[in-house]
Task: structure prediction
Amino acid sequence: MRCDLVTVGTELLLGFTVDGNAAAAGRALAAAGVRLEAHATVGDDPAAIRAAVAAALERTGTVVVTGGLGPTRDDVTREAVAELFGRRLVRDPALVAALEERFGRLGRGPMPEANLRQADVPEGAAVLPNRRGTAPGLWLEDAGGRVAVLLPGVPAEMRGLLEEEVIPRLVRRGEARTRAGAPAGGGTGGQGAAEPASPPTVIVSRTLRTTGISESALADLVGDPAPLLGDGVTLAWLPGPEGTDLRLTAWDLAAEQAGAALGRAAAALRPRLGAWCYGEDDADLAAVVLEALVARQARLAVAESCTGGLLGARLTAVPGSSRAFLGGVVAYDNDVKCAMLGVSAETIARHGAVSEAVAREMCAGAARSCGADAALAVTGIAGPDGGTPEKPVGTVWVAAGWGGRVRAFHYTFPGERDVVRRRAAQAALDALRRALSSGGED
Amino acid sequence: MRCDLVTVGTELLLGFTVDGNAAAAGRALAAAGVRLEAHATVGDDPAAIRAAVAAALERTGTVVVTGGLGPTRDDVTREAVAELFGRRLVRDPALVAALEERFGRLGRGPMPEANLRQADVPEGAAVLPNRRGTAPGLWLEDAGGRVAVLLPGVPAEMRGLLEEEVIPRLVRRGEARTRAGAPAGGGTGGQGAAEPASPPTVIVSRTLRTTGISESALADLVGDPAPLLGDGVTLAWLPGPEGTDLRLTAWDLAAEQAGAALGRAAAALRPRLGAWCYGEDDADLAAVVLEALVARQARLAVAESCTGGLLGARLTAVPGSSRAFLGGVVAYDNDVKCAMLGVSAETIARHGAVSEAVAREMCAGAARSCGADAALAVTGIAGPDGGTPEKPVGTVWVAAGWGGRVRAFHYTFPGERDVVRRRAAQAALDALRRALSSGGED
Result:
């Protein structure tokens, strides 16, 4: 199965809105074995919409169109596509009733006539019920089997309709066509009539997440990835401020085969990554650390200077973090470091607030004042000001206390204020992850 | 001036990457008076790239293409577009030298032959130097004046080349065509030869930011916006978890007129919004609060329970925040609330940790322990667990201390854990903004 996507909205072309719908649709379609062949964005202009939908139907025979189904004058997708298919619009009484009921429930008085446009349906189109909003999805099919699916542009509504209504229909359609020996989706990827039907293929990925090591050092560890990957699996390197992800993708395999191929590739790759790898897919390092703490019945306190609360925010973003996270001190000002964490003013005067000695005292102070078994401290220069030749912007000290020992680490992070802070929080979490897994020894 | 955009990358179609380049390009072009007419995304496939670029040139005569200029086999944009223009690729000695110099500097040994592909230039193309990366931009123009500009897909490199190299050339080109009486950009928007040249028009916007009030209540305050806006200016409502933005956009006016029209509309609209409006454009509420504190020579401390550091993180995200922000306590655990903020265990037992009384004691404790003039406290139930019929998930108490008074506010925020936390941090900042502007009175 192949298909096209058209997203409609002048705001998208002006860059007022980032088009997250395209990525969400691409992911959902690929996971179901439907290959998105091309994506076009056009403004709220009937001629542009008609041209883009016509070109898409020409290419793959199947197009998902999002946006432009709302009640305002700008919303012209319904009319434009109906005209392209040579259908007139008919007001659907069930949709009118649903709109009026919804409007009445919000207590906003009589519904403006304009809203009724959302009850207009191209003759012969199937209505895909939208339980998250007012504009239903619409499924139009012409005599030649070409399909245009219209979905609202509101992200949650688009995603819900796509996954619950559209993809199952596309997949059933692809299966029926495969059985009938017709090319799936009007394209070139189908099965010849003489061949037995093949199961539909999917494109799926699995990600190994690393932190604390540069992409090039990681590449040296991995070496030539080809023998590790196996047929049909590729490897992409995705470096970011908080670490480098290695994404394995299985291309055009049946769902079961794809899962097995990814499993083999991941099993072959993980030993090369060693302890640099902290998890897979959407694993969050804070959640990994919290799990390790819970497993050891340990409780954590933090002391933050340059991260200013970011480390606590990351930990408490994890549901259930209260099982292992007690709290801590945001010690942005030096007097707060002394008063609330017991850092000695002399240590600050001698070594500076960004120093190993202060990080260690902050760490000990956090553990002591919160009554914690484990503690983390971060102090650094996030910039843009405050750097010196000896301690440039990006200088960060992290201290991690666990099992009666405090380990301190020094970094010089590249990047702007926000990036330095994010890297510092990630480095602190990683220091504790490693301390916990070494059982207090090293 | 009109133009098209083509973004190249199989990863974009699979949804592995959200296409932020399209929005960034749309914004930069619109602000310079270049209207993005349509945007297409295709995979790393020469035939698909050629078809999309050809369709774009047909439509507007000018196309910006991003992505597919890297050193790997997947990167085929250079070859595909050169073929479309009937040009062969020629290795540029200056680019080879620059690549070798850069490679040597990173100390990675001899450069692989594949990397030299980045020094290949379609015959007759202008090289746009890329000081942020290895792949230069390329400007191809055919005998008929049709232009394809190739830019790397790395966001910072794309944006830099677009703003520094491409847009100035496009604008000069548009001006030259307008003077010559030819349609700008090969499209229909140009001036007839008999008319005097008009200045180029722009599409620009100005945003008024509000918080603490629902979109519908705000709509009631504004009433009919039409008389406030003036000709050529529209209003868009953009509700989000942290407040509702009102975006004014001036369409197709000369730059000076557009600025004046936006200024008039903003001046007419702001009085309707009253104190709900805290700033314009990319104003950040944390920065607004910090400025107000600096103006009063006041220093702030925080006490956070459900936000767990988010409030401190937002404040310290602002460069220079140390002028007004001292720090505070992340009191996630009740014992930490008592030990470090002096909250009484009896108050917690009687009212619960999420209560007005505890918020007030946390606020007082933060001010006292940090020696601050102003203080904020947040305690709430972010979910997904911990809600009760009396205190459902989303229940939040905020206390704001300033000028010898502590004001407390109760909220029941809708949304998931992350949204409740973000709303709570925003509400706390807003409570202090209002307290500071009332001068301690109310």
